[in-house]
């Protein structure tokens, strides 16, 4: 009984209902040395932290805390007081929930926070906030799967771009990536058995591509004429570049610098299809029609961030739209309101993408596949339904399928909530005389 009372006393400290490192609810572990309560994943990261610090991680539910441990944690003041010390100069645009996306980010953040106390001093924070950062990283070749070339990478916050220059004094950049529309991820590189895990930074963005051969079945294609009057296609494609370094700390620093630079840019890039009350049914199209909207200011800070929301990657099989099409293996990435797929994990161009909207528009996800498709590789299938096409997908395991279905459902729920907030705001502005009536019938749908 004494332990239960002491545990409740620990939970009563400020911010002790959240994990000190990733803000997950209901922490289950305790780092006695630092006096913080953690979730299970952050507890593992604390155990793996290298250095001369001997971490003692204990589980709350297993009654592993002694009275001495409890008193030591209480004396430290709780998660809020510890974070005020160790995160004093943590950049405001860095989101702690990023640790929930990737174990690599979680471990590097915890190592930087505790072992080197990087966020406790102003010097390191100033380094992350530099207006210009230049370094040499290895960039994957677009021709060979196993070829990585050294390039100068320039992050320019004033011009809001990332430039890739060939090593050796090139004046013109090979790639110019706009920060405002780029998505940044951490990918795990496939390694041989027994080899050390390696990671890379993946940067994805939309760019215009000219050529007679088209990439991406879902791209928007426009015919244009060049100087020689021959007809060529212009399309918007999603391109990926992959950057890595021999030091994991450098990869994490570049990742943080890019996200912090993006956080300083006003971004309203959520693409959500909002039907009007008298809107007619749209015709079949290869790409889902979307409109650029600016979300209400009260929810911008909650769901618009430099980091992707509901991030998940993995290998899935995908069936074609025709019943004669077979199943092809693709690498999928789920972020914000999009599912993007490529031929392989490190392929430079996306093969296609589709938008995930709201339930009122007919978007849904469910287990199983359509009857007209060919026999899948296994029984772990699920279908993402859109107003224009049913995407039949197949995972390697039942657990992997359930995780994909859960993440897509979270995205749908988030979009439904956003639609409800927008419809209410429209009605308020209509009552105030600043906006015409629209979306007023959506309140009844979600209530």
From TrEMBL:
According to the lineage, what is the superkingdom? Eukaryota
Q: Where are the transmembrane segments?
A: none
Alphabetically, the GO molecular function entries are: GTPase activator activity; phosphatidylinositol-3,4,5-trisphosphate binding; zinc ion binding
Q: Locate the Arf-GAP domain: which residues?
A: 4-128
One of its Pfam families is ArfGap
Taking every annotated instance into account, which residue ranges of this chain make up the domain PH?
309-413
Query: Which InterPro entries does the UniProt record give?
Result: Arf-GAP_dual-PH_domain, ARFGAP/RecO, ArfGAP_dom, ArfGAP_dom_sf, PH-like_dom_sf, PH_domain
Q: Which SMART domains match?
A: ArfGap (SM00105), PH (SM00233)
> What name does this protein carry?
Arf-GAP with dual PH domain-containing 2-like protein
Q: What is the lineage of its organism?
A: Eukaryota, Metazoa, Porifera, Hexactinellida, Hexasterophora
